[in-house]
Design goal:
Among the domains are: 45-112, Immunoglobulins (Immunoglobulin-like); 243-409, Muramoyl-pentapeptide Carboxypeptidase, domain 2 (2-Layer Sandwich). It is built from eleven helices and 23 strands. It has helices at residues 2-40, 62-65, 258-270, 273-276, 288-302, 304-310, 332-335, 340-350, 365-368, 382-389, 397-401; strands at 45-48, 53-55, 60-61, 66-70, 72-74, 80-81, 87-97, 102-112, 119-121, 125-131, 148-150, 156-157, 159-162, 171-180, 186-198, 211-214, 220-224, 227-230, 233-235, 281-283, 324-327, 356-358, 376-379. The strands form seven sheets. It has a four-stranded mixed sheet, with no helix packed on it. The chain has a four-stranded mixed sheet with strand order 10-15-14-13, with no helix packed on it. Strands 16-17-18-19 form a four-stranded antiparallel sheet, with no helix packed on it. Strand 17 (220-224) and strand 18 (227-230) form a beta hairpin. Helix 5 (288-302) crosses helix 6 (304-310). The termini are far apart. Bound molecules: zinc ion.
């Protein structure tokens, strides 16, 4: 009997052991499950970048606002936010926890707009004139010339032009000036560009015909007695001549016009002593016969093509007019050396105050027809001289008035 009893109690012990072990395993499984459930369901929280103010129109991505998600992930991936409207808005961010359960979180962001209201200063109407028979060399047309956009604080903004126009076709073209803030905001102003074909002042032989015309920039061009005046200023260049027999004084004597002479004296007296000593008129008025000799000499020495770049054909020289002069030198080499160089520099900075312009500035041969001549000054009066001086960035008469300088025959 003893053995079965022992056996029975052993069996009971085994059973209890199993029960305990089973309970333990169950407890562990339960604990793990509970832990898993707790872990997977931990509260989800957005991790923010701290950036929540953006400019209207900026490209803003969700990742610019939300750095990450604690205990979960974004349900959407990185997306671009709508930045078109100004103001504060609730941004709804869909997230999912580790179980994959989706929920919405909210974050406040603001799109703000700087006050962008510059005033565009630009003409309401623009004109461009196509001169008949002169299509090969059009006057430069810059619709942005003298156009600016400035706000009340004095800050300037870049301006561009929208709209199509054709400078080779007569018509009215609507264009729009656009000032841009740099962050996508714009202010606009409309204008009308009128392109008009006007008759040429030259006949088929390239000779000027008396009459009233327009320049490419809309100035009045009057040719009277074979002399061209634009806005009242006499123009002599490769296009415009003086007539045969012309003399600046009218009586054949060679002298500067009284205004030019007086302005020269005033400038000479005002020059600092070290400049004045070298400030002389090397070549003033020349009649047509003088210029014929000079030009033919240059052609002999340099060949026709080169001579044309720096010397005028007879009737085409500004020296006929009594308004122009070569000061101190007329040599490119000497002009770049002292003492002439000091004179050239002083003239370049000061001559405009006495009504003189540097007639053939550097790099403007396409406009004037002549290479840089630092010694050749032309009297135009103080008002126009100041404009053309342009704070040291010389504008040529051709560009300003919209006339060309090219031989017509
Ligand atoms: Zn000259």
């Amino acid at each position: 009997m003893a053995a079965p009893k022992r056996k029975a109690s052993r069996n009971a012990r085994e059973r209890r052991k199993k029960q305990v072990a089973g309970g333990l395993i169950l407890a562990v499984v339960l604990a793990i499950t509970l832990g898993m459930i707790l872990y997977l369901n931990q509260p989800v929280r957005l991790e923010l970048t701290g950036e929540n103010r953006f400019h209207v129109g900026d490209k803003v991505m969700l990742s610019d606002v939300v750095k990450g998600v604690l205990n979960g992930s974004l349900a959407t991936g990185d997306i671009q936010l709508d930045s078109s409207k100004e103001g504060t808005q609730d941004l709804t961010v869909t997230v999912k926890n580790r179980m994959g359960r989706e929920m919405d979180e909210t974050v406040q962001i603001t799109f703000w707009q700087e006050d962008f209201n510059p005033v565009i200063t630009a003409p309401d109407t623009l004109s461009y004139f196509i001169i008949e028979g002169q299509s090969e060399k059009k006057a430069a047309f810059d619709p942005l010339k003298d156009v600016s956009a400035t706000d009340e604080k004095g800050k300037s903004y870049p301006v561009t032009v929208r709209g199509k126009y054709d400078l080779t076709k007569e018509g009215e073209y609507k264009i729009t000036y656009v000032a841009a803030s740099g962050d996508g905001q714009t202010v606009t102003k409309d204008a009308v560009l009128t392109v008009t074909v006007v008759r040429s002042p030259f006949d088929e032989k390239g000779e000027m015909m008396d009459g009233t015309y327009k320049t490419a920039k809309g100035f009045d061009l009057i040719i009277k007695g074979g002399i061209a005046y634009v806005d009242g200023y006499m123009i002599v260049n490769k296009s415009y001549t003086v007539p045969n027999g012309f003399s600046s004084t009218g009586d054949g004597t060679r002298s500067l016009t009284p205004e030019t002479e007086a302005a020269w004296k005033k400038m000479h007296d005002a020059a600092p002593a070290e400049i004045r000593g070298n400030l002389t008129i090397r070549s003033g008025v020349r009649n047509i016969a003088d210029q014929t000799v000079i030009f033919n000499n240059y052609v002999r020495e340099n060949g026709l093509e080169e001579a044309l770049t720096f010397s005028a054909r007879p009737r085409h020289s500004e020296h006929h007019t009594g308004l122009a002069m070569d000061i101190t030198t007329s040599s490119t080499e000497l002009a770049s050396q002292q003492p002439a160089k000091a004179v050239m520099d002083w003239l370049n900075e000061n001559a405009w105050q006495y009504g003189f312009i540097l007639r053939y500035p550097e790099g403007k041969a396409d406009e004037t027809g002549y290479i840089f001549e630092p010694w050749h000054y032309r009297y135009v009066g103080e008002e126009l001289a100041k404009t053309l001086y342009n704070n040291g960035d010389w504008i040529t008469m051709e560009d300003y008035f919209g006339v060309d300088s090219a031989y017509k025959n």
